[in-house]
Amino acid sequence: MANLQRLYLLVAVCCFLGLTDGTVETSHLRIKVSGRNLKKGILHSDDPYYIVSLSEDGGNTKTEIGRSETISNDLNPDWKFEFELTFDRNNNQYLYFHVYDHDIMKIDDTLGRVWLNVADYVDKGEMAYPNLDKQGYLIITTTKEGQAGSGKLPIPPDAAVAENGTLQFKLSASGLPTKDDILFIKRTGDPYVLVDSVDGPRNTILKKVGRTKTVPDSQHPVWNDVITFNWNRNLDQRIRFTIFDEDLIKHDRFDHVWMEVNDYVAKGQNYTLLLPKKGSITITKA
């Protein structure tokens, strides 16, 4: 009887702390951010700051929750600003970071943008190194007592993948912006994807991975091409997906986004990324 009472007490404590089978369900987060290797401006100093917004509906809408101070002439800023939020796994929460270069004489330039899945961030031990869409990456970490985690999603033992191996996947997208508008007439584009990769967030040497065929006239394309990638778990590889609109004269870039390959494997090789500007791209095992 005493053992049973202890078990009930342990379950109650876990529920109170938001723990279920080792997974944090709710938590109070206090977050700080640094930038690394940000995009350098032309003929002027770079004075970066960021605005952070919170979405609680999977990126459909977002609300600004904070703005950092500006750090003068620094491409590797460590912002002192910290912000807080209440994490709830049931709310499909994302943070949107928009990094700007502060200018006095003109509109502030965009240095980079990225969405962060808050549940993934918590599961990584409140540590993440997401790539920005233009150049560089952010270091996003907790300010709580104790050391932050590894910054990696745990790969389940039953993931059925080796330490190194060949991954094959297909791509689809949803909600891409219109690109070929004529006056007030909205026209969908003809999208295709270029795929390349780097070994780790600090690496800038891109390796070509592949390209899809063009899907004509679609905001929700499904590409049937199979992309093959040589995965090495120990290299912290990142894949960049760049979506273009194919035109006769010029191919316009819709958007691009980075994926941490280890995260894709940890998610069972079925992963959706929010694009920085609009829409999403899904990577699915072929």
From TrEMBL:
Keyword Metal-binding annotated: no
Q: Where is the signal peptide?
A: 1-22
Residue ranges occupied by any C2 domain in the UniProt entry? 1-131, 147-275
Q: What is the recorded name of this protein?
A: Protein BONZAI 3
| CDD domains assigned | C2
* One GO term of the biological process aspect: positive regulation of gene expression
Chain segments annotated as coiled-coil in the UniProt record: none
The question of whether Kinase is a record keyword is answered with no
What Pfam families does UniProt report for this protein, alphabetically? C2
Taxonomic source organism = Orchesella cincta
Q: Sorted alphabetically, which keywords does the UniProt record give?
A: Signal
